[in-house]
Amino acid sequence: MLKISIYSFFIYRIALYFLFTYNFFMDKSPDNIKKMFNDIASSYDFNNMVISFGLHKLVKKKVVKSIDFSGNVLDLCTGTGDIAGLISNNYKCNVIGLDFSIEMLKIAKNRYAHIDFIEGDCTNLPFANESFDFVTISFGLRNIENYDKALDEIYRVLKPNGKFIHLDFGKKNPIANVIYNFIVPKLVSIFYKNLVPYDYLVKSKKLFFDETQLISLFEKHLFNKVKTKSYLLGGISCQVMQK
Ligand SMILES: C[S@@+](CC[C@H](N)C(=O)[O-])C[C@H]1O[C@@H](n2cnc3c(N)ncnc32)[C@H](O)[C@@H]1O
Fold first, then answer.
1. How far apart are CA 210 and CA 206, in angstroms?
2. Residue 54 to residue 105: CA distance in whole angstroms
3. What pLDDT does 200 receive?
4. Ligand 1: which of 38, 57, 77, 141 to mutate, judged by most atoms within 8 Å of the beta carbon?
5. CB of 103 within 8 A of CB of 41?
């Protein structure tokens, strides 16, 4: 009897460990993600300022300045249009921003009336093969359930030699990890009643690929590495790939 209780206890603990470590509770279905971003759209920019201490803007600026954009540029998961806006303000090129959250797009359109913002899904892009010289995606791929399909689509719509720029949290900096996983949640709880989106952010960040895994994934989708760059001591990282 005692043996059975000990076994059950350990099986229970192991099951809990896997459930929480690999987070079977995180729902990345497109409908859920779309709803979450529609719900938080009006506070998205302000929240980003708070949780990044304003630094995300600075990093985005640096990333955009480090690449010589020209021709046709597609910004996927454009959200409220930060990257699309920076590219069109700094380079002479045709920029299109795409997102499936209509509420995020409303804000983007308000901020940058001169840019074409399109409602669409990254896993089924409404563009012909080889249409773009550059495709960017910032803090977006992590939220896409079928990231393989999205990467196939990015490859399809890029012209030969076209560049794919991916930006998201990095995992190299233990200090950034402590700040994001422990200190910021406390800060966020002071400002917001609904912690679900932030909880999702922390979990999705933990479960997402590190830079080495990302490069392997992109290479599996036939991209070649051009360069990688870390910002905020590795708290944010950028990979530039080529078709
Ligand atoms: C964290 S926000 C990033 C917004 C912006 N790129 C930035 O850097 O601030 C992620 C965005 O991806 C969009 N998104 C997630 N999955 C998508 C998909 N499959 N197709 C289109 N947009 C998607 C969401 O609606 C949301 O606006």
1. 9
2. 21
3. 80
4. 77
5. yes
Distance CA 229, CA 225 (A): 12
The parts of the chain modelled with pLDDT lower than 70 are 1-26, 185-195
The per-residue pLDDT for 24 is 44
Residue 14 sits at the vertex; the CA angle it makes with 9 and 15, to the nearest 5 degrees, is: 100
The string of DSSP codes covering 80-127 is T-HHHHHHHHHSSEEEEEEES-HHHHHHHHHH-TTSEEEE-BTTB-SS
pLDDT reported for residue 201 = 80
Domain ranges of the chain: 26-242
* Single-letter residue type at 82: D
Tell me the CA–centroid distance for residue 77 and ligand 1, in Å. 3
Give the per-residue pLDDT at 49: 84
Atom of ligand 1 nearest to the CA of 75: 6
What pLDDT sits at residue 80?
Answer: 98
The confidence score (pLDDT) of residue 133 equals: 98
User: What is the dotted CATH code of the domain comprising 26-242?
Assistant: 3.40.50.150
